[in-house]
Amino acid sequence: QVQLVESGGGLVQPGGSLRLSCAASGITKDYYTIAWFRQAPGKEREGVSAILLSDGHIYSADSVKGRFTLSRDNAKNTVSLQMNSLKPEDTAVYYCAAGVWHRDWDIDDEYDSWGQGTQVTVSS
Asked: Is the pLDDT of residue 30 over 80?
């Protein structure tokens, strides 16, 4: 059974940085993808970034390219999202997800394991 635990959310001023971490356990197949999604109030959940565990390929949404960086620590079974130059529109609950996708990496129903979510608020 896959379990995901997020950490690292909080309140930050525009232009600031935060680092989110997702500790994963129970993943036994390397063709899994671990992804970060976010959901702002009144909006649909959207894919932020993802990593394919088999080859380390990283996917990112256009809205975060150049600002967010995804990385993994194999020894700690952790995937981290470094978020720089944060904007108020990045405010959302951020979720870590794991699964094997077939259509596209940023379709949330392709993932069958989810963390509890962590709030990120960007405000002055």
From this structure: no
* Amino acid letter, 71: S
Instruction: Label the pairing between strands 10-12 and 118-122.
Output: parallel
Task: Give residue for tokens 């709030």.
Answer: 119
Q: Which residues, other chains included, contact 12 with Cβ-Cβ below 8 Å and sequence gap of 6+?
A: 18, 86, 120, 121, 122
Taking only Cα atoms into account, the Rg of the chain, rounded to an integer number of angstroms, comes to 13
pLDDT tens digits along 82-97:
999 999 999 999 999 9
Distance CA 25, CA 12 (A): 29
- Vertex 1, ends 34 and 99: CA angle to 5°? 25
